[in-house]
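Dear support,

I submitted the protein below through the web form. The confirmation email said the job was done, but the results page showed an empty box. After a refresh the structure appeared. I'm attaching both so you can tell me whether what I see now is the final result or a partial one.
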Amino acid sequence: MEVLYTASATAVGGRAGHIRSADGVLDLPLAHPKELGGPGGGATNPEQLFAAGYAACFENALLRVARERKAPIRESSVTAHVGIGRAADGFFRLQVALEVSVPGRDQAEIEVVARIAHAEVCPYSRATRGNIEVQVTVA
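What the results page shows now:
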């Protein structure tokens, strides 16, 4: 693979610490969510960061597929819900639900575009395949 871009970030203190990207654009405190026994509040967590990245990446893949099919999308959104929980083996696992919204477009058409984006285009979908349960729905 020819690497076109590399993002770098450093975490100090784990889930109750701090993250900072190499360029300083991302510079945030971390906290355990209340649901995992932490204080929650004004700090982010790895699941929120993963949800934001996956949602942005998937929407871009969706837009690309639509453009390549000569049916560009003018307005859309993708919401990623990233869940974390303990599996039967005692280890934590993630699951993802992606909600695609494209107002004013035929749902069946967008379901095809979303299926292609998930199966072929989105690098996050390709990277998680077989590792994380990912559900894609079109509103």
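Response: this is the final, complete result; the empty box was a page-load delay. The longest helix spans residues 46-68.
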